[in-house]
Amino acid sequence: MSQLGIILQARTGSTRMPEKVILPFFQEQSILDLLLEKVKKLGVPFVLATTDNPTDDRICALAVRHEVPVYRGSENDVLDRFIQAAKSFGFSKIIRVCADNPFLDLAGMQTLVTEFSDSDADYLSFQLAGNKPSILTHFGFWAEAVRLVALEKAQKLTSEKLYHEHVTNYIYGNPDLFNVRFIKTDPLVFSRTDIRMTLDTPEDFEIQQEIFATISKENPNFGIPESISWLDQHPEILELMKKEIVKNQK
Fold first, then answer.
1. What is this structure's pTM?
2. Which of 38, 17, 29 has its CA nearest to residue 209?
3. Which residue spans adopt a coiled-coil conformation according to this UniProt entry (predicted)?
């Protein structure tokens, strides 16, 4: 039987905002603290994959505090880091989580785990308007799922830097070579182009910190519907998001 596991990728060396994942974000907790606690709730084998750069010792220390095992590998060849992490922990199916998504939706994670457990797909993720996989949007609500054999096949087929930095790009970009499947997202968000909950810049950090704190007061276990509802009541925040989307086109 295929062993499914979650791999969360995190590093401190972000170009646009170094250390964003370990800075205090909500009630002295970092984004990484929040994500580690959230993902643990799924009860699925779980590993944090960071780099072998000494600056990421702090990420390892944080994972140890949360009792989450760590794999350390290449900083720039993230594809290889995932392959080696999966092999080290015996995962043949991987749910990939990025640490720059403080609004990761737990219900969406559960759906992905359930669907991928019984799927023969090489790649499975949520789909938005324009046949876009969620990883290519600015939402930051979802993870994606991939088979180890598909990652290994991609590694053999391409040496292009882009595909080794962006783990799944080659796979969903070549549906003729891989079994690529999608889960259609909620109509509430399917066609939206004005929401940015992925966090890359200091501007993102400031906006999202305010949103997270405000919604958490009303509902500590909030998900996508609560986030969308709050944003629609605050058009001034959506305007700020639109500016960041233009500045950080994917």
1. 0.96
2. 29
3. none
